[in-house]
């Protein structure tokens, strides 16, 4: 799928936080009869992750083909290898993505599962208890991590399956001719069905076929916005095009709201703060979510466009890592997600330009320095693509 392809006739259900997501994932794994694919950035070792691990092993023991891809860095180098050994001993096929950066800097940041080619789940949730921080310190969170995923049934599942199967093959030993054939298969046109159910598309970002697919989808949605746009991310450090799209929408009278997670990484917060004054002066509303760890990467635009996935609004997600989002054109789904986001905005703290007018010089210097350091690192990592 080298270009964005919308598919009609999908049943897309919103999954809110780990309570809904892990219940659905475990049920699907326990019901699997033939095949399970699971790809994740973090596969932890806590009680919740152990339930998923044991369910995968149980499925393999009853004859289901189970294939798992975990990110070597995201899951912790030693812990990733230990988990891989446990899964393989239990009959699960498991591979670690990009060990020792043998294929460049990119990580698989995608969170995807496909069961029996009938049910797919895509979103922002790693395999980790949502009461435990995912920054390596394992702090107990005051409330469950705020995050979303979608469960999909319908023709779009075939697209998701094709992607996760291709990732599995690419993490193994695949020759040049086989890789070319795989790309040709991924670029084939998909079957479009006619139905009253959701119209949806799978967006993926990688460093070969889809270098800017996710960002282009956001830019297109913002460029066509008429009324409102709520965009949610834990890490805000997009390139110049993305920032200009936010400002352009606000200048047309669109209510643009950024809901940003804060408090996890000091440098990341400083970089985000460096953008605040210009965005606020141009009419973009900024709300900081401080209730618990915000991990959602979601957005709604007007009344019929929504996206849920793994891509943050930062240089790593938009220019380096492998990511996966689902875009949904459905008024009922958009209304449901919008209601959840409005509650998130209500739980946040709005930032105003007055907060920055008389800021101490050392704070301004810190934000500016953080931005310059981050921009330099991203330009190096992206060979100048990050602006």
Automatic annotation (TrEMBL):
**How is this protein situated with respect to the membrane?**
Peripheral membrane protein
Q: Which GO terms describe its molecular function?
A: cardiolipin synthase activity
Q: Does the keyword Zinc apply?
A: no
Location of this chain's protein in the cell:
Cell membrane
List, from the UniProt record, the residues annotated as the active site of this protein.
109, 111, 116, 295, 297, 302
Kindly report, in one word, the top-level EC class recorded for this enzyme.
transferase
Q: Which reaction does it catalyse?
A: 2 a 1,2-diacyl-sn-glycero-3-phospho-(1'-sn-glycerol) = a cardiolipin + glycerol
Q: Which GO terms describe its cellular component?
A: plasma membrane
Per the UniProt record, one Pfam family is PLDc_2
Give the similarity note: Belongs to the phospholipase D family. Cardiolipin synthase subfamily. ClsB sub-subfamily.
What does the protein in this record do?
Answer: Catalyzes the phosphatidyl group transfer from one phosphatidylglycerol molecule to another to form cardiolipin (CL) (diphosphatidylglycerol) and glycerol.
Q: What is this protein called?
A: Cardiolipin synthase B
């Amino acid at each position: 799928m080298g270009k964005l392809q919308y598919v009609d006739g999908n049943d897309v259900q919103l999954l809110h936080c780990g309570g809904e997501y892990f219940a659905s994932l475990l049920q699907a794994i326990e019901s699997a009869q033939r095949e399970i694919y699971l790809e994740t950035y973090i596969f932890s070792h806590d009680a919740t992750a152990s339930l998923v691990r044991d369910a995968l092993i149980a499925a393999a023991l009853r004859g289901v083909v189970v294939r798992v891809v975990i990110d070597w860095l995201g899951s912790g180098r030693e812990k990733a290898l230990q988990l891989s050994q446990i899964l393989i001993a239990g009959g699960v096929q498991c591979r670690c993505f990009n060990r020792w950066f043998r294929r460049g800097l990119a990580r698989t940041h995608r969170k995807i599962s496909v069961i029996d080619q009938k049910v797919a789940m895509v979103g922002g949730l790693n395999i980790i208890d949502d009461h435990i921080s995912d920054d390596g310190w394992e702090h107990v969170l005051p409330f469950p991590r705020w995050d979303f995923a979608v469960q999909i049934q319908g023709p779009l599942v075939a697209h998701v399956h094709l992607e996760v199967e291709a990732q599995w093959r690419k993490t193994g030993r695949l020759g040049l001719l086989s890789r070319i054939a795989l790309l040709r298969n991924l670029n084939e046109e998909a079957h479009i069905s006619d139905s009253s159910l959701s119209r949806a598309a799978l967006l993926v970002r990688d460093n070969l076929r889809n270098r800017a697919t996710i960002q282009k989808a956001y830019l297109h949605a913002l460029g066509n916005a008429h009324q409102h746009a709520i965009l949610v991310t834990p890490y805000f450090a997009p390139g110049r095009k993305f920032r200009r799209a936010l400002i352009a929408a606000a200048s047309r009278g669109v209510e643009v709201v950024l809901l940003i997670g804060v408090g996890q990484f000091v440098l990341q917060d400083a970089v985000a703060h460096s953008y605040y004054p210009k965005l606020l002066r141009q009419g973009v509303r900024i709300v900081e979510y401080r209730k618990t760890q915000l991990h959602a990467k979601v957005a709604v635009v007007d009344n019929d466009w929504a996206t849920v996935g793994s891509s943050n609004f930062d240089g790593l997600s938009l220019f380096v890592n492998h990511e996966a989002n689902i875009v949904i054109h459905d008024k009922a789904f958009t209304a449901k997600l919008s209601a959840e986001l409005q509650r998130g905005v209500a739980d946040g703290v709005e930032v105003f330009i007055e907060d920055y007018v008389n800021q101490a010089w050392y704070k301004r210097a810190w934000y500016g320095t953080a931005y310059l350091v981050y921009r330099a690192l991203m330009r190096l990592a992206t060979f100048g693509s990050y602006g």
